[in-house]
Write a structure and sequence with these properties.
132 residues; alpha+beta; Aminopeptidase
Length: 132
């Protein structure tokens, strides 16, 4: 299944969907002002995408791109559809878009004692994680 990908523009439906998720998914100390993110996405180096399964909003990604690499600054999946593979689908679409460029995604550190199992998570992108 391929998700519909829509560039987020000011005051569109995607604008409001992404804003709600962005404000709920990231604590204030980890986020930039939403207006500034979208303003920056008017430049060619940054893009904010909303992802939809049919009409249902499933998540978003904010990407910064150079000639050498693609960096995912923010990625979040709508809470109502988490653990259904949408995060992996979004990452796969971004990976395809990036082509041969390295794709960089930072994640929160795994806390000591937290078990991360690639097979259980169903996420093929977790293979590079060091959980020791």
């Amino acid at each position: 299944m391929t998700l519909a990908q829509q560039k987020v523009k000011f005051f569109s439906k995607a604008y409001h969907d992404v804003k709600r998720l962005y404000l709920s998914a990231f604590p204030p100390r980890e986020r930039f002002p939403y207006f500034c993110l979208l303003l920056n996405s008017l430049r060619s180096v940054a893009t904010c995408y909303a992802y939809y399964n049919k009409e249902r909003f499933v998540g978003f990604a904010y990407i910064i791109e150079s000639k050498e690499q693609v960096f995912i600054l923010f990625l979040a999946v709508n809470g109502s559809v988490r653990s259904k593979g949408y995060g992996s689908m979004i990452l796969a679409q971004i990976r395809e878009y990036a082509g041969r460029k390295p794709l960089i995604l930072t994640i929160e550190p795994v806390e000591k004692g937290q078990i991360v199992n690639k097979e259980d998570s169903g996420c093929p992108f977790m293979s590079a994680m060091d959980t020791n």
